[in-house]
Design brief:
Chain lengths: ~170, ~500
């Protein structure tokens, strides 16, 4: 019985070898002529400004989550659409039930105001009596982070020289 | 189409619960501001009542020969646990309606998530299919994570949710790995198929290392759900941080569902049919597994009780007490026979009454005073006698003293363990019960043995609704200590169709 597991071992070893052997051979054979252009994340797109390790507004996550739910819904509905004719009434009812439950969730967040981009927020969580109306300052919900502004070339302390040095190739 | 209608008729309780979960969301949207708590709670209760009605209709009916839709088992065992979950949910909903700890906005989502958690418990209790078992576990767990962090803005609540998520993710991952190993060995995800296949493997006498690894990993997942050592670390923090109604749910319904799945898992997969006579190796393995569970039981109850001794926060103390009780119940699981499993069911029902009651009192106390310290209870007995008297009843039951149900429940667990030959375990449990007397009675002492002048808080009257709830639970706690025949018979009957 333990011999059966030998297959697994061989499989694993082959898999590992395949990856690393190719990388090593590739590294030895390929020419290496890096330019700053080549090393940038998007070689033929926008210049990257700043780091992505900054604080994002929580509202992006809400929107992303809701988008995700419906993206997955579509992924489920494609195979359903292929067979709905064959299975008939049952599949139709099931599909609509599925969509209805998801829509119920969407309606709920909508009515509760979680989709409003500019919203008033509840200052006191417990009592719920003191409500402070404060529209958000901008889409980031506050001043932009300094490092982002600096990287964009509009920061308060940055000089022309440094900007050029950072961008390099442009 | 007829077949479909018949199969659907077997899962009416689940359909009903799902429907009313959605209704709870809708009601919140259409009810005028300020009345959501009452209205949404009312509709949730109606839903639970309807579900209980459908469950009651399934009781005593000959269950379907094949699992419904190939994976849902409808038998008295699952019906018992579903009724258990519905009852616990009803009390949690009532507690929430009377509590002030939940957010003023978003009652709809609270009850929706609560009912979904109940649905997860339903699936967990009624399947031999590993996939559905895992799905039920995740539905229950994910809903519980959200509920634990429900007091938005409260740091401890957030911390509780975070710890719960991390622990839960690890435990469910470990369990899933165990499931995949079982699948790899037998080529099936159905425990009723896995059991015989494992028997064949035992008959071939290949050694038990792969099976032991798989079983151990699965047990880790179950141990996390029932908060048994060494996977109990999340319990105190989560129980303390979560809003009290949610803690009640976790301590009662979630734990009960975990035990249901554990019993099914062991019964179907790892207990040889003694009448038919399984292979020797399997008999031996089953006994070894029992011994392992017995060691876990001893460890769990000792850790829980010793840690509870030093607690000053009432909820945290009850959290450790709930760990200790998981240990007592595991004692019945360790016997790996029908008598032991019956005593497990009996004890869980008893535990339901006394724990709901104890947490109810904590919630009432925390609501009126904003305080959860044991020492600050002093003088409560003279100020609010009804609450204090019922609390003493629950505490006596938790210790396991007659004439309460706690005594009878423990009695059955002890006899089952001794009959199986775990005398040492019974001795450990006895010593543990004596230890638990100390910390439970610290609460009673604070309430009654201090003069009224020392009382920290003025009289706090229980509302009639809350007093009625406490009385129902207290009467249940005492009643099952005397008239336990029918309950015992039902628990034993539930085992009938568990193969």
């Amino acid at each position: 019985m333990y011999f059966d597991y030998f297959n697994v071992f061989v499989f694993l070893t082959t898999g590992l070898l395949f990856v690393f052997a190719n990388m090593i051979v590739g590294g030895l054979v390929r020419p290496q002529k890096p330019t700053p252009e080549k090393l940038s994340p998007y070689e033929c797109g926008e210049d990257v400004i700043g780091d992505s390790w900054i604080r994002f507004d929580i509202r992006f996550y809400t929107t992303a989550l809701i988008y995700l739910i419906f993206a997955v819904e579509i992924a489920f509905l494609f195979p359903w659409a292929l067979v709905v004719r064959e299975i008939g009434m049952l599949a139709l009812v099931e599909g609509f039930t599925f969509v209805a439950i998801l829509l119920l969730g969407l309606v709920y967040v909508w009515v509760k105001g979680d989709l409003d981009w500019v919203k008033t927020y509840n200052a006191s969580v417990k009592g719920g009596t003191e409500v402070e109306d404060r529209p958000a300052a901008d889409i980031h919900g506050g001043p932009l982070p300094v490092e982002l502004l600096q990287a964009a070339g509009v920061g308060p302390t940055i000089t022309e020289q440094q900007t050029k040095g950072e961008k390099g190739h442009s | 189409m007829n077949l479909l209608r018949e199969e659907l008729s077997w899962i009416t309780p689940e359909l009903c619960l799902t429907l009313f979960a959605c209704v709870a969301l809708l009601v919140d949207l259409f009810v005028q501001k300020g009345r959501e708590s009452v209205m949404v709670g009312f509709f949730s209760l109606m839903g639970l009542l309807a579900t209980a009605f459908f469950l009651y209709r399934q009781y005593g009916v000959t269950p379907p020969a094949q699992p419904v839709f190939g994976c849902m088992v409808v038998d008295p065992f699952s019906t018992l646990f579903k009724l258990f979950a519905v009852g616990a949910l009803a009390f949690v909903v009532l507690f929430t309606m009377l509590s002030r700890q939940t957010r003023p906005d978003g009652y709809g989502e609270f009850y929706f998530i609560l009912l979904c958690a109940g649905l997860g418990a339903f699936f967990l209790a009624s399947t031999y299919n590993l996939l559905l078992m895992y799905l039920g576990l995740e539905l229950l767990s994910i809903a519980s994570y959200i509920l634990a962090g429900y007091a938005k803005g409260n740091r401890r609540s957030g911390e509780a949710a975070m710890k719960y998520v991390i622990f839960g993710a690890v435990a469910s991952g470990v369990m899933l790995y165990g499931f995949t190993l079982l699948y790899g060995m037998t080529g099936s995800i159905d425990l009723t198929v896995i059991g015989p296949k494992l028997r064949d493997q035992f008959a071939l006498d290949h050694g038990t290392i792969p099976i032991s690894v798989a079983t151990g990993l699965c047990l880790a997942g179950f141990a996390y759900k029932i908060s048994a050592a060494p996977f109990h670390f999340w319990t105190p923090d989560v129980y303390e941080g979560a809003p009290t109604p949610v803690t009640t749910f976790l301590a009662v319904a979630s734990k009960g569902a975990g035990f249901a799945a554990l019993l099914r898992f062991l019964q179907a997969g790892f207990i040889p049919d003694r009448t038919l006579g399984g292979p020797e190796a399997m008999m031996g393995y089953s006994d070894k597994l029992g011994t392992l569970v017995a060691v876990l039981a001893a460890l769990t109850m000792t850790l829980g009780n010793l840690a509870a001794l030093g607690q000053t926060n009432l909820k945290r103390m009850l959290a450790y007490s709930s760990i200790a009780h998981a240990g007592y119940v595991l004692m019945g699981v360790a016997t790996m026979n029908r008598e032991g499993f019956s005593s497990v069911l009996f004890y869980l029902v008893v535990y339901y009454f006394m724990n709901l009651g104890a947490f109810g009192v904590v919630m009432y106390y925390a609501n009126t005073t904003g305080d959860e310290q044991i020492d600050d209870l002093k003088g409560l007995g003279w100020r609010s006698p009804l609450v204090a008297i019922t609390m003493v009843a629950f505490l006596v039951a938790l210790v396991g003293l007659p004439p309460t149900a706690g005594f009878i429940g423990k009695w059955f667990l002890f006899t089952a363990a001794v009959k199986k030959g775990f005398l040492w375990l019974a001795v450990v449990a006895g010593i543990n019960s004596a230890i638990s007397l100390f910390y439970y009675f610290r609460v009673a002492r604070a309430m009654w043995l201090r003069p009224e002048e020392e009382a920290k808080y003025a009289t706090v009257h229980a509302s009639p609704a809350f007093a009625a709830l406490l009385l129902v639970l207290a009467v249940g706690t005492v009643w099952f200590g005397v008239g336990f025949d029918s309950l015992l018979r039902y628990c034993d009957y539930s085992q009938n169709l568990l193969r």
